Hints:
Blueprint: H1 2-13, H2 31-41, E1 45-48, H3 56-61, H4 63-83, E2 88-92, H5 121-141, E3 144-150, E4 152-154, H6 167-181, E5 185-189, E6 195-196, E7 198-200, H7 201-212, E8 220-223, E9 229-230, H8 231-242, E10 247-251, E11 260-261, H9 266-270, H10 279-296
Helix pairs in contact: 1-7, 2-4, 4-5, 6-8, 8-10
Amino acid sequence: xxxxxxxxxSEEQGGVELLLRTREELDLLDQAAVFAFLExxxxxxxxxxxxxxxxxxxxxxxxxxxxxxxxxxTANLVHGSYRAGVGRVLFLGSSCIYPKLAPQPMPESCxxxxxxxxxxxAYAVAKIAxxxxxQYYRKQYGILFHSAMPTNxxxxxxxxxxxxxxxxxxxxxxxxxxxxxxxxxxxIWGTGTPxxxxxxxxxxxxxCLHLLAVENPPDWVNVGSGTDVSILELAxxxxxxxxxxxxISKDPGKPDGTPRKLMDVxxxxxxxWHAKTTLRDGLEETYDCFLKEEESGGLRAK
Length: 302
């Protein structure tokens, strides 16, 4: 999803030659293959958007895969970029790097000040390691390796797996299928009270291109919309967007995760970038894409 958005934004901006490979063409878990690719192509810039991602269920169920695959891909790409003389690397992390009970909104400075949320600790540790890799390679070698920490993302090309997807694609699929099958109820996980911030993936891509043009960026910077909603409010909005007319029930026996995750985006604001897409507009567009992907047989659900 993120990679596709970066390609769209880069092609729209123009003036760049993109070096693109599919997962089948280049396995980022294969160190030798990654090193050989970077040394052969010698890119000027590398954006690390690849990751193994998922929602609470996936993070809880597959923590070993989440920490191993994300650590390995990032280490291969960061060190491989250094070896190949890449001038600039932008690593994309996640808002889950911050403590479970971080101050709200969460500033960059609260990193590693207290314990992480246990339900996604494996993924968060891998992303913290990626951020620190870039920070220390920059410090030791004087190369411009830096990071962006996006909030929760959604948009075209998302993964709609019924169990392993993030909250927005999971809700879109659940409410859509409930509407189509004539169900009168949709049950959401948890109490509905946790608050989450969401950013359309095209806004993230625009922010990345903006950061790549900043001459001396921070080691890492938060990328978000600066606003949040409760999970119940999100469900109500998704229900409206998908035209589901039934009732919404809660299952408090399921985990809520972190009580609130709102980014402090003042640092990015100071660099001259602000999110443009409202949540309602973004969800309307994403649902339209979902319907087209489903109709064409191209819906991601793995």
